[in-house]
Predict the structure.
Amino acid sequence: MKFATKIALAAAGVFFLFSLFFSGWMLSRSRQSILEQIQEGEEQQLARRQNQLERAADSIQESASQVLLRQLFRDNFDRTSALYLGEQELYNMTGYEFDWESYKRKMAQGEIGSLEIGGRVFEQEEGGKNLLVFVTKFQLSAERCTVVHYRDVTEVYARMRRVMAQGLGAAVLLGLVFVLLLQLVIHGLWRPFRRMQEAANQIAGGNYGVRTGMKRRDEIGQVAESFDQMAEKVEAHVQELSEMNQRQRQLLGSLAHELKTPMTAILGYAQTLQRVKLPQEKQEKALSYIESECRRLSGLSAKMLELTGLYQEEGRLELREISLAGLFDRAQEVARYRLKQKDIRLEREISCPRETLWGDEDLLMSFLLNLIDNGCKATEPGGRLVLTADRRGIGLRDFGCGIPQEEISRVTEAFYMVDKSRSRKAGGAGLGLALCRQIAELHGARLQIESCPGEGTLVLMCWPE
């Protein structure tokens, strides 16, 4: 059973019981009031008749016979009265037999009310009827007499029972109407909570951007506002976790991507030293490159952590003045074996007014090597790549397949690849240009890509303005 139905039924039950109790109390009070009015009227009439009887009896002798007393009583009272001398019935016109023992017992138990004219009044059931019995005692001639008078109030009780039944029926009908109205009211009050429930279900289903959108000034509005604030916190937390997961994925991919090129160079030099007998000078030069690349790899992890933003206190940029020509020389030397494998020439064009630049040498080397690696993938064997430096910045131009214009805005996204089959076959992971963009941003520069399908691509790290 729904909560709203339980509330409605409970409220209707309380309402019904209250109505029943109140109706019973009101009917009891009404019956008592009616009986009091009847008693008052009968008491006045009884007093008048009693006075008439007493005046008539005063005119007769003290030894008046009981026959005369009966005559006087019959002349002054009607068929609802009876005359007694003591407890002896003298004349009874009522058709009922009155139980004096019951009368005495009720007097002893205090169930009989008093009359202003003297005497008592009580209710009695007789022959299936409800009687209001009046008992008064007075002196008549030389005799101590008692008059018993009754008023049939059966209709009063019957009317009260009919009213009670009607009231009960009305209470049941009003209870049903009350249940329906309360259901509608609760349904309206419950609507905001259903909206919050639906929003909670959508959030549980992964739609963290949903909100209740309720603007109310009552307590429900305050709950809705707190719910929306909680949803915002949940969305922000989930977004933070998602970004952290993405950074972790990018970190692993970046490390694997960055390790590949220097390890290729190290492997090439090591194989050359093992298999080819080189002059002492070239052996030392090869060992120097191996040592240099190993040192670069030892600091590469910290650089990758900074790129992905996972640890802000480690791997800070080490900015210093770097020779532009020396940076290109080192990039050509490191990429030599990669270029040799692809049978691609690497040229340089320097038209920059400056000879040096400020930056982190390891990150700038990663920038150039990533561009060279991407250029090798896009260029057919026997082609060429050009390292370029001009007034705008440094970068690489290739003359390969190019990038469609609609794809240029997305190629810097991590793991995004224009031609997935070609990139996977070439060992790519879609991180090269993403790393280049981050390296440029760390240097306060921006990455600019100019490409035309079938003609090649120019990727530049544009100097900060």
